[in-house]
Design goal:
Order of helices and strands of chain A: HHHHHHHH
Structural class of chain A: mainly alpha
Oligomer: homodimer
Helix content of chain A: over 70%
Number of strands of chain A: 0
Shape of chain A: globular
Largest sheet of chain A: none
Strand content of chain A: under 5%
Number of helices of chain A: 8
DNA sequence: TTTTGACTGTACAAATAAAAAAGTCAGAAA
DNA sequence: TTTCTGACTTTTTTATTTGTACAGTCAAAA
C-alpha cells in the first residue's frame, strides 16, 4: 500500500511537469503515461479518472503553498512583514503554476468536476484563514485596531486577487503574461498591502 | 446643422435604450432604426458605421458620468466623503449600463474598433485624473500624507475594479449579476475605500 | 496485484452551409 | 441641397455536419 502511494506521487509529479508547460486540458493521459514509460491503463489503475489526477495535483500544490505560508508566518513578527512575505509566496506559486489557472475560479476553464470545485473552495477558505490568523495576531499585539479578521482577510484577498485578474485582463492576451506585467502585479500588490495594513491601524 | 445634432442625439438615445436591454452586439441597426421609425440608411446618414454610433453612445454615457463625479467633488469636503460618493456614482452607472460592459477592457467583448479602444483609454485616464485630483486636494488639506496622486489613484481604481471583476467571475455566470452580488460589491468597495484612505493618512 | 494492447463512445474542433446583419447606392421626397 | 428610402451586395455570425483525438474500458498477461 505504501508502494501504491509512492507510485501515485510519481504520477502526480509527472503530471505536474506536463501541466506546467501545456496546461491541464492540452495534456493527455497518454502523454503522462508515455513520460513515465507506462501504459494508460496503469494510470487508470491509480486514478479512476483524469479529474482525480488533477485533484491530486492541485492538492499537492496547495499543500506546498500552505507549507510555505506557515514558514513565512513563523519567521515574521509584524503583520506588515508577514503579509509582504505572503505576497511574495503567492506570487512565486502564481508564476510557477500559472498554466493551471489556480487563481480565479475553476482550473483551466472547462475542467468542472464537482469535487474539484469543492476542493477549490476549501483551499480558498484555508487561505483566508491563514490571512485571518495574521490579522488576529496583529490585533492581539495591538499592531492594528480590532476588526473581524475573517471579513477583512476576505476583503484583502479579493482586492489582491482583483489586481492580478485586472492586470491579466488588460495585458495583451498572450498565452503567458510578460515579465513586465508580472513585475507590475507584484509591485501593486505590495503597495496595496502596505496601505491596507496601515489603514487598519 | 443644429437640427442634425438633435437628430444624432435622438439616435444615440434610442440606441442606448436597446443597448441597455440587449447589449451592443445583440442590437441590430435595423432594430434601432425601427424603434425610431426611420430606415436603416437614415442611421448611416448620421453615423458612418455602427462603431461610430457606439462611440457616440459611450461618449455620452461617460459625459454624464463625469458630470456626476464633478457634482460629488463639489458637494463633498473630505477625501473620504468624496471617494465614498464616487463609489456610489460608479456603482449607479455600473448597474445602469452593465449590459454594455463598460468596465473591464473593450465594450461588449468583440466590438474592437481602434477608435473605441483609444476612447476607452482616454476615459480611463480621465477617471484616474478625477480621483487623483481628490487625492491632491486631500494632500493640500493635510488630510493625507503626500504621495504621487496619479500613481495612488491608479492603484486605488485597480483594486476597486478588481473587486468588481472578481465578484462577477465568482458569481453564477448568469447574464446579469444578482441583487445580492451587486450589494456585496458595493459594500466591499466602500469598506476598501475607507481602509485605503485611512492607510494614506 | 499490477500492467498492457487493443478497443469503444463521446466530446471537441475543423469544415461547410445557412441565416442574419452590416453596409451601399440610385433615386425619391422635403 | 439636404434628408431619407427600398432594394441590393458583402461581410459576419450562427447552425449543422463531419472527422478526429481523447477519456475511459476490458480481457488477458506478467
Amino acid at each position: 500500500m505504501v508502494e501504491t502511494d509512492k507510485k501515485r506521487e510519481l504520477i502526480i509529479e509527472g503530471a505536474i511537469k506536463r501541466f506546467i508547460h501545456y496546461g491541464i486540458n492540452k495534456t493527455t493521459m497518454n502523454e503522462i503515461a508515455d513520460d513515465l514509460s507506462v501504459s494508460k491503463p496503469s494510470l487508470y489503475y491509480y486514478f479512476p479518472d483524469k479529474s482525480s489526477l488533477v485533484l491530486g495535483v492541485i492538492l499537492k500544490i496547495f499543500n506546498d503553498y500552505f507549507e510555505a505560508l506557515e514558514k513565512d508566518k513563523i519567521s515574521k513578527n509584524t503583520a506588515e512583514e508577514c503579509l509582504a512575505a505572503f505576497v511574495e509566496t503567492r506570487h512565486r506559486f502564481f508564476q510557477k503554476y500559472y498554466m493551471l489557472h489556480l487563481s480565479g475560479g475553476s482550473p483551466d476553464a472547462s475542467l468542472n468536476s464537482d469535487s474539484l470545485r469543492t476542493s477549490f473552495l476549501e483551499m480558498k477558505a484555508k487561505n483566508e484563514d491563514f490571512h485571518a490568523q495574521i490579522l488576529q495576531r496583529a490585533i492581539d499585539n495591538a499592531e492594528i485596531s480590532p476588526v473581524d479578521p475573517h471579513k477583512i482577510a476576505e476583503l484583502y484577498l479579493d482586492s489582491q486577487a482583483g489586481i492580478t485578474s485586472l492586470c491579466l485582463l488588460h495585458g495583451n492576451k498572450e498565452l503567458f503574461p510578460s515579465k513586465k506585467e508580472m513585475k507590475s502585479i507584484l509591485e501593486k500588490q505590495h503597495q496595496l498591502s502596505k496601505i491596507f495594513i496601515k489603514g487598519l491601524k
